[in-house]
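Need a sequence for this fold. Nothing fancy.
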């Protein structure tokens, strides 16, 4: 009961919701860059929300399915086919042993998520099956998939009829709350932060997005002791070009903290392509909490829909 990578793609990894409770040991969270897509894909096939699945970055890619079961694709729309027949994003799709799933270059987004009923049956490392590419553990020996790799699948679940849900489309308006050092920005820097477009540079990766735009200055130079950091934190290095920390962010940092991306918008960053532009929107803590609640209502709604006969 395995999944075979015929063409693994440039960076396909096993991810779940990530590794928690180990940052004091210097271990990053890892996990899906678009956790919303991962959760929806798993719910479509009947898995727990955080079951291990494949994060497929910028296909093309193809896989041979070596048992009967159900699959779901979410995230980037990769014009997928199963033995030549279309597989629509956001739909539960039955498959048979021996069929081949193909994903083409995405029409929208950056990362596709492939969930299979029963999940990918790899042993957890420090509580998670997520691949930590920098540390080299978790997932499949801590690395991205290669052509010919086979992944074990969990026990199949009872086949359910085809069913689909509405998937939100990612945007480029990213809400952020003020960080501890936001007040040290000059007045003109604050205006540029909110009004200028910020481009994701090619030096970005799962650790962080390095942005390019008008340089931001503090009112006065400052040195900071090292402090704990988390995915979503926006740092300001000396060159004045912000960095948004992502799923594989390190555990500590020493740059000024301009803000924190609202957690409800992190999935949109996970789908933003290199070279694309972002716009930051100022948000209060209350607005960020309301956005979280709205996202949870969406997940609750699709759960009810999928449980209907």
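Here you go.
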């Amino acid at each position: 009961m395995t999944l075979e990578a015929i063409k693994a793609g440039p960076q396909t990894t096993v991810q779940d919701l990530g590794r928690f409770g180990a940052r004091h040991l210097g271990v990053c969270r890892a996990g899906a860059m678009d956790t919303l897509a991962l959760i929806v894909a798993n719910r479509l096939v009947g898995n727990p929300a955080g079951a291990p699945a494949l994060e497929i970055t910028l296909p093309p890619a193809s896989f041979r399915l070596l048992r009967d079961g159900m699959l779901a694709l979410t995230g980037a729309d990769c014009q997928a086919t199963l033995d030549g027949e279309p597989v629509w994003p956001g739909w539960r799709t039955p498959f048979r042993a021996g069929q081949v799933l193909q994903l083409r270059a995405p029409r929208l987004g950056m990362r596709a998520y492939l969930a299979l009923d029963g999940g990918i049956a790899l042993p957890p490392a420090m509580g998670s099956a997520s691949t930590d590419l920098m540390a080299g553990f978790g997932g499949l020996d801590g690395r991205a998939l290669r052509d010919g790799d086979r992944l074990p699948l969990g026990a199949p679940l009872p086949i359910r009829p085809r069913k689909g849900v509405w998937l939100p489309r990612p945007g480029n308006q990213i809400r952020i709350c003020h960080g501890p050092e936001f007040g040290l920005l000059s007045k003109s820097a604050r205006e540029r932060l909110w009004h200028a477009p910020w481009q994701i540079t090619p030096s970005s990766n799962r650790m962080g997005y390095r942005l390019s735009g008008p340089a931001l200055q503090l009112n006065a130079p400052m040195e900071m002791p090292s402090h704990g950091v988390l995915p979503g934190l926006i740092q300001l290095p000396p060159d004045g070009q912000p960095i948004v920390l992502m799923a594989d962010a390190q555990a500590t940092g020493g740059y000024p903290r301009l803000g924190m991306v609202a957690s409800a918008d992190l999935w949109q960053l996970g789908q933003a392509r290199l070279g694309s532009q972002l716009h930051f929107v100022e948000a209060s803590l209350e607005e960020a909490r309301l956005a979280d609640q709205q996202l949870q209502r969406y997940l609750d709604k699709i759960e009810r829909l999928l449980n209907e006969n």
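For context: The two ends are 28 Å apart (CA to CA).
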